[in-house]
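Appendix C reproduces, verbatim, an entry submitted by the partner laboratory led by Prof. M.T., so that reviewers can inspect both the input and the predicted structure.
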Amino acid sequence: MTSIPTFKIGAVEVDELIVLINDYSGYDFSDYSMPSLHRRFQRYIDLNKISDFNQLLQDLMNDSSMINNLIEEVTVNVTEVFRDPLFFAAIRSDLIPELNKLPVIKIWHAGCSTGEEVYSMAILLKEHNLLDKSIIYATDINQSVLDTAKSGKYSIESFKESEFNYRESEGTKKLAEYYTVLNGEILMNEDLKSKIIFSTHNLVSDNAFNQFDLIVCRNVLIYFNKTLQDNVLQMFYNSLTQNGILAIGSKETLRLSPIDSKMQVVNDRWKIWKKKE
Protein backbone atom coordinates (compact mmCIF):
# COMPACT_ATOMS: atom_id res chain seq x y z
CA MET A 1 0.00 0.00 0.00
CA THR A 2 1.44 3.37 -1.06
CA SER A 3 1.59 6.01 1.67
CA ILE A 4 0.28 9.50 0.95
CA PRO A 5 3.08 12.10 0.96
CA THR A 6 2.79 14.80 3.60
CA PHE A 7 2.40 18.46 2.73
CA LYS A 8 5.59 20.56 2.61
CA ILE A 9 4.95 24.00 3.98
CA GLY A 10 6.51 27.28 2.90
CA ALA A 11 6.63 30.81 4.28
CA VAL A 12 3.03 31.57 3.32
CA GLU A 13 1.70 28.52 5.17
CA VAL A 14 3.82 29.33 8.22
CA ASP A 15 2.29 32.82 8.32
CA GLU A 16 -1.22 31.38 7.99
CA LEU A 17 -0.62 29.03 10.92
CA ILE A 18 0.76 31.88 13.06
CA VAL A 19 -2.37 33.95 12.43
CA LEU A 20 -4.72 31.03 13.05
CA ILE A 21 -3.04 30.05 16.32
CA ASN A 22 -3.16 33.66 17.53
CA ASP A 23 -6.82 34.07 16.55
CA TYR A 24 -8.00 30.85 18.17
CA SER A 25 -5.71 30.56 21.21
CA GLY A 26 -4.15 33.96 21.89
CA TYR A 27 -0.59 32.62 21.52
CA ASP A 28 1.43 34.94 19.29
CA PHE A 29 4.37 33.27 17.58
CA SER A 30 5.02 36.10 15.11
CA ASP A 31 8.31 37.03 16.78
CA TYR A 32 9.62 33.47 16.92
CA SER A 33 12.46 32.47 14.64
CA MET A 34 10.93 31.64 11.26
CA PRO A 35 13.31 28.73 10.49
CA SER A 36 12.51 27.23 13.90
CA LEU A 37 8.75 27.60 13.39
CA HIS A 38 9.03 26.09 9.92
CA ARG A 39 10.81 23.02 11.34
CA ARG A 40 8.32 22.59 14.19
CA PHE A 41 5.25 22.99 11.96
CA GLN A 42 6.67 20.58 9.39
CA ARG A 43 7.44 18.05 12.13
CA TYR A 44 3.81 18.24 13.28
CA ILE A 45 2.59 17.73 9.71
CA ASP A 46 4.92 14.79 9.12
CA LEU A 47 4.14 13.08 12.44
CA ASN A 48 0.42 13.36 11.79
CA LYS A 49 0.74 12.40 8.09
CA ILE A 50 -1.10 15.50 6.89
CA SER A 51 -1.31 15.79 3.10
CA ASP A 52 -3.80 18.65 2.66
CA PHE A 53 -2.94 22.02 4.18
CA ASN A 54 -6.41 23.54 3.71
CA GLN A 55 -7.92 20.57 5.51
CA LEU A 56 -5.40 21.09 8.33
CA LEU A 57 -6.54 24.70 8.72
CA GLN A 58 -10.17 23.61 8.79
CA ASP A 59 -9.48 20.90 11.36
CA LEU A 60 -7.54 23.31 13.58
CA MET A 61 -10.43 25.79 13.53
CA ASN A 62 -12.90 23.08 14.50
CA ASP A 63 -10.86 21.26 17.14
CA SER A 64 -9.18 23.22 19.95
CA SER A 65 -7.28 20.10 21.06
CA MET A 66 -5.45 20.08 17.71
CA ILE A 67 -4.37 23.68 18.23
CA ASN A 68 -3.14 22.77 21.72
CA ASN A 69 -1.16 19.86 20.28
CA LEU A 70 0.39 22.14 17.65
CA ILE A 71 1.31 24.71 20.30
CA GLU A 72 2.96 21.97 22.34
CA GLU A 73 4.98 20.91 19.30
CA VAL A 74 6.24 24.48 18.90
CA THR A 75 7.01 25.19 22.56
CA VAL A 76 8.32 21.91 23.98
CA ASN A 77 12.07 21.87 24.64
CA VAL A 78 14.46 18.98 25.14
CA THR A 79 15.69 18.71 28.71
CA GLU A 80 17.06 16.22 31.23
CA VAL A 81 18.34 16.05 34.79
CA PHE A 82 21.63 17.96 35.12
CA ARG A 83 21.67 18.63 31.38
CA ASP A 84 25.07 20.06 30.43
CA PRO A 85 26.53 18.95 33.76
CA LEU A 86 29.49 21.31 33.53
CA PHE A 87 27.01 24.20 33.59
CA PHE A 88 25.84 22.99 37.00
CA ALA A 89 29.47 22.55 38.05
CA ALA A 90 29.97 26.22 37.14
CA ILE A 91 26.97 27.12 39.30
CA ARG A 92 28.63 25.32 42.19
CA SER A 93 32.01 27.00 41.76
CA ASP A 94 31.06 30.48 40.53
CA LEU A 95 27.65 31.25 42.06
CA ILE A 96 27.17 29.31 45.29
CA PRO A 97 29.63 31.51 47.28
CA GLU A 98 27.63 34.61 46.22
CA LEU A 99 24.21 33.04 46.83
CA ASN A 100 25.37 31.88 50.25
CA LYS A 101 25.64 35.52 51.36
CA LEU A 102 21.94 36.21 50.75
CA PRO A 103 19.29 35.91 53.49
CA VAL A 104 16.74 34.66 50.95
CA ILE A 105 17.48 33.34 47.46
CA LYS A 106 14.92 33.92 44.72
CA ILE A 107 15.46 32.05 41.46
CA TRP A 108 13.48 32.12 38.22
CA HIS A 109 13.71 29.23 35.74
CA ALA A 110 12.08 30.68 32.62
CA GLY A 111 11.04 28.13 30.00
CA CYS A 112 11.39 25.27 32.48
CA SER A 113 9.76 22.65 30.21
CA THR A 114 9.09 19.38 32.07
CA GLY A 115 11.13 20.50 35.08
CA GLU A 116 14.17 18.22 35.19
CA GLU A 117 16.62 21.13 35.31
CA VAL A 118 14.59 22.87 38.00
CA TYR A 119 14.82 19.81 40.23
CA SER A 120 18.53 19.67 39.39
CA MET A 121 18.91 23.20 40.75
CA ALA A 122 16.97 22.26 43.89
CA ILE A 123 19.26 19.27 44.44
CA LEU A 124 22.33 21.44 43.97
CA LEU A 125 21.03 24.01 46.47
CA LYS A 126 20.22 21.28 49.00
CA GLU A 127 23.75 19.91 48.77
CA HIS A 128 25.09 23.36 49.65
CA ASN A 129 22.60 23.82 52.51
CA LEU A 130 20.81 26.63 50.66
CA LEU A 131 17.50 25.03 49.69
CA ASP A 132 15.69 25.93 52.91
CA LYS A 133 16.19 29.64 52.26
CA SER A 134 15.45 29.44 48.54
CA ILE A 135 12.32 29.95 46.46
CA ILE A 136 12.42 28.71 42.87
CA TYR A 137 9.85 30.02 40.40
CA ALA A 138 9.56 27.71 37.39
CA THR A 139 7.56 28.98 34.42
CA ASP A 140 6.66 27.89 30.92
CA ILE A 141 4.13 28.82 28.26
CA ASN A 142 3.14 25.17 27.84
CA GLN A 143 0.63 23.96 30.46
CA SER A 144 1.14 20.30 29.57
CA VAL A 145 4.85 20.29 30.35
CA LEU A 146 4.19 22.34 33.50
CA ASP A 147 1.80 19.66 34.71
CA THR A 148 4.55 17.08 34.30
CA ALA A 149 7.03 19.31 36.11
CA LYS A 150 4.65 19.96 38.99
CA SER A 151 3.94 16.26 39.43
CA GLY A 152 7.65 15.49 39.70
CA LYS A 153 7.03 12.13 38.00
CA TYR A 154 9.30 10.85 35.26
CA SER A 155 9.90 7.61 33.44
CA ILE A 156 12.80 5.48 34.56
CA GLU A 157 14.00 5.47 30.94
CA SER A 158 14.33 9.27 30.93
CA PHE A 159 16.72 9.04 33.91
CA LYS A 160 19.18 6.66 32.26
CA GLU A 161 21.85 9.37 31.79
CA SER A 162 21.02 11.23 34.96
CA GLU A 163 23.44 9.54 37.36
CA PHE A 164 26.33 10.19 34.98
CA ASN A 165 25.27 13.84 34.53
CA TYR A 166 24.94 14.26 38.28
CA ARG A 167 28.46 12.97 38.92
CA GLU A 168 29.86 15.18 36.15
CA SER A 169 28.18 18.18 37.80
CA GLU A 170 30.29 17.43 40.90
CA GLY A 171 27.38 16.03 42.87
CA THR A 172 28.45 14.81 46.27
CA LYS A 173 25.96 12.01 46.98
CA LYS A 174 23.96 9.52 44.94
CA LEU A 175 21.22 10.95 42.74
CA ALA A 176 18.87 8.18 43.92
CA GLU A 177 18.77 9.88 47.34
CA TYR A 178 16.61 12.61 45.80
CA TYR A 179 13.82 10.48 44.41
CA THR A 180 11.89 7.27 44.97
CA VAL A 181 10.73 4.67 42.47
CA LEU A 182 7.00 4.07 42.71
CA ASN A 183 4.89 1.96 40.35
CA GLY A 184 7.65 1.98 37.78
CA GLU A 185 8.06 5.78 37.85
CA ILE A 186 10.60 8.20 39.27
CA LEU A 187 9.04 10.48 41.90
CA MET A 188 11.08 13.48 43.06
CA ASN A 189 11.30 13.99 46.82
CA GLU A 190 8.75 16.27 48.46
CA ASP A 191 11.37 18.51 50.10
CA LEU A 192 12.56 19.48 46.60
CA LYS A 193 9.03 20.03 45.27
CA SER A 194 8.06 22.16 48.27
CA LYS A 195 10.56 24.89 47.31
CA ILE A 196 9.38 25.21 43.68
CA ILE A 197 6.44 27.30 42.47
CA PHE A 198 5.27 26.27 38.99
CA SER A 199 3.28 28.76 36.92
CA THR A 200 2.46 29.62 33.32
CA HIS A 201 4.31 32.63 31.92
CA ASN A 202 4.57 33.77 28.32
CA LEU A 203 7.90 35.43 27.58
CA VAL A 204 6.38 36.94 24.45
CA SER A 205 3.55 38.84 26.12
CA ASP A 206 3.81 38.69 29.93
CA ASN A 207 5.73 41.16 32.08
CA ALA A 208 8.24 40.76 34.87
CA PHE A 209 6.60 39.59 38.10
CA ASN A 210 9.28 39.71 40.82
CA GLN A 211 12.91 40.52 41.60
CA PHE A 212 15.33 37.61 41.36
CA ASP A 213 18.87 36.87 42.48
CA LEU A 214 19.31 34.32 39.69
CA ILE A 215 17.45 33.91 36.40
CA VAL A 216 18.05 30.77 34.33
CA CYS A 217 16.71 30.66 30.78
CA ARG A 218 18.73 28.19 28.75
CA ASN A 219 18.21 27.46 25.06
CA VAL A 220 14.93 29.34 24.76
CA LEU A 221 16.10 32.59 23.16
CA ILE A 222 17.40 30.72 20.11
CA TYR A 223 13.77 30.19 19.08
CA PHE A 224 13.08 33.96 19.04
CA ASN A 225 13.95 36.62 16.49
CA LYS A 226 16.31 39.47 17.44
CA THR A 227 13.56 41.90 18.44
CA LEU A 228 11.94 39.43 20.81
CA GLN A 229 15.32 38.33 22.19
CA ASP A 230 16.11 41.95 23.07
CA ASN A 231 12.71 42.46 24.70
CA VAL A 232 13.07 39.33 26.82
CA LEU A 233 16.63 40.16 27.85
CA GLN A 234 15.51 43.63 28.92
CA MET A 235 12.73 42.08 30.98
CA PHE A 236 15.25 39.73 32.61
CA TYR A 237 17.52 42.69 33.41
CA ASN A 238 14.61 44.56 34.99
CA SER A 239 13.81 41.44 37.03
CA LEU A 240 17.31 41.08 38.50
CA THR A 241 18.19 42.33 41.96
CA GLN A 242 21.33 44.39 42.46
CA ASN A 243 24.23 42.08 41.50
CA GLY A 244 21.68 39.55 40.23
CA ILE A 245 22.86 36.80 37.92
CA LEU A 246 21.58 35.72 34.48
CA ALA A 247 22.37 32.35 32.91
CA ILE A 248 21.36 31.61 29.33
CA GLY A 249 22.13 28.84 26.85
CA SER A 250 25.60 28.08 25.55
CA LYS A 251 24.54 29.02 21.99
CA GLU A 252 22.99 32.31 23.10
CA THR A 253 24.61 35.69 23.75
CA LEU A 254 24.08 39.15 25.19
CA ARG A 255 26.25 40.69 22.48
CA LEU A 256 24.55 43.65 20.74
CA SER A 257 21.59 43.32 23.12
CA PRO A 258 20.28 46.36 25.06
CA ILE A 259 21.72 44.99 28.31
CA ASP A 260 25.19 44.00 27.03
CA SER A 261 26.98 46.97 28.60
CA LYS A 262 25.08 46.59 31.88
CA MET A 263 26.29 43.05 32.60
CA GLN A 264 29.69 41.58 33.43
CA VAL A 265 30.85 38.09 32.54
CA VAL A 266 30.99 35.51 35.33
CA ASN A 267 31.55 32.44 33.15
CA ASP A 268 31.97 32.97 29.41
CA ARG A 269 31.77 29.31 28.41
CA TRP A 270 28.44 28.73 30.14
CA LYS A 271 27.05 32.22 29.41
CA ILE A 272 26.62 33.41 32.98
CA TRP A 273 26.50 37.18 33.63
CA LYS A 274 26.19 39.39 36.66
CA LYS A 275 24.33 42.70 36.79
CA LYS A 276 26.75 45.58 37.23
CA GLU A 277 26.33 47.78 40.28
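The first strand starts at residue 105 and ends at 110. Additional entries are available on request from the coordinating office.
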